[in-house]
Amino acid sequence: MMKTMKNILLLALLSLVFSVPVHAAAGNTIVLDGSTTVGPLAKSFAAYFTKKYGVKVTVSESGSGNGAKSLINNTCDIASMSRAMKPQELEAARKKGVTLVQHIVALDGIAMVVHPGNPVRNLTKTQLRDIYSGRVTNWNQVGGPNAKIVVIQRESNSGTQEAFKELVMGKTAPISRTAETQASNGAIKNRIASTRSAIGFLGLGFVDRSVKPVAVNGILPSKATVKSGTYTVSRPLYFYTAGMPSGKLKTFIDLAGTPDGKRMISELGFIVR
User: Fold this and answer.
1) If DSSP codes are grouped into helix, strand and coil, which group holds residue 127?
2) Domain count, the chain
3) What is the Cα Rg of the chain in Å?
4) In terms of residue numbers, what domain contains 79?
5) What pLDDT, on the 0 to 100 scale, is given for residue 15?
6) pLDDT tens digit sequence for 89-137
7) Residue 140 CB neighbour total at 10 angstroms
8) Other C-beta atoms within 10 Å of 172: how many?
9) Is the pTM of this model over 0.85?
10) How far apart are CA 269 and CA 73, in angstroms?
11) pLDDT tens column, 19-38
12) Alpha-carbon gap, residue 98 to 213, rounded angstroms
């Protein structure tokens, strides 16, 4: 009888252990997955949080879409995303009984960038749509040199790609199949910096002297123009959680509203709400 009871207790204990989600098994940890744009901010928060609270925070940058999947499938604690959840993601979460909670952590401009040697300084949204849809293929059609435009976009899983399509392309202008795809903000920046006739888009925090931002409808991307709303190719950046966060997870989410969090947001080139 005692042996039988011990076996029952052992089976119950094993069942409890193996029912714990992967990300919770390590104990005092927080796991983030998602956007490469939000990645630098997530990593900065993670390093600060680990040092201050002794909580191990890991950050993966597999793209906003994969971050959403990880959160819905209970393999991360926070999905870092450069776009809002899509209707199909919200529906997938609902079917699994997951309540997704959105937290805006910062604002970001999507900067349209060209090679520093490109004389073009301003493009309208209509011109951008025409370039990315393939209607305009030479820089001389938009006031630039006689050179074929090399169009660079992000991969389909990218939140920045989704935001660009929504903010610039709209619902009726698909991006040309001839557009070249790069896997990250850094990869786009490197491609543009080495390609005189290229155009692409980056999160504002990734812009440096290796590329040149162009004005959109006469407005250059900057912290001031994004915050004021005058630069219209901009979006919020998000942390998503499964349900309302509590404990250390809530403290991590709330970091964006603290003086130290705001300092990190600003230092990385993002915009405090």
Assistant:
1) helix
2) 2
3) 22
4) 2-106+236-267
5) 33
6) 999 999 999 999 999 999 999 999 999 999 999 999 999 999 999 999 9
7) 12
8) 7
9) no
10) 32
11) 333 343 345 899 999 999 99
12) 40
In a domain, 176, yes or no: yes
In one-letter notation, the amino acid at residue 118 is: N
Question: How far separated are the first and last CA of the chain, in Å rounded?
Answer: 64
Residues 123 and 93 placed together within one structural domain of the fold: no
Strands 100-114 and 234-242: antiparallel
Q: Tokens 């990315």 correspond to what residue?
A: 132
Assess whether 126 and 94 both reside in one domain: no
The 10 Å Cβ neighbour count of residue 231 is 22
Please give the distance of CA 251 from its chain centroid, rounded to a whole number. Answer: 21
Residues 188 and 114 in one domain: yes
Instruction: Identify the burial level of 4 via C-beta atoms within 10 angstroms of its C-beta, where 0-12 means exposed, 13-18 middle and 19 or more buried.
Output: exposed
Owner of token pair 């909580």: 55
Rounded CA gap, 145 and 139, in Å? 5
Q: How far apart are CA 29 and CA 60, in angstroms?
A: 14
CA distances from 269 to 110, 160, 189, 199, 208 (A): 12, 16, 15, 21, 10
User: Are 115 and 88 members of one domain?
Assistant: no
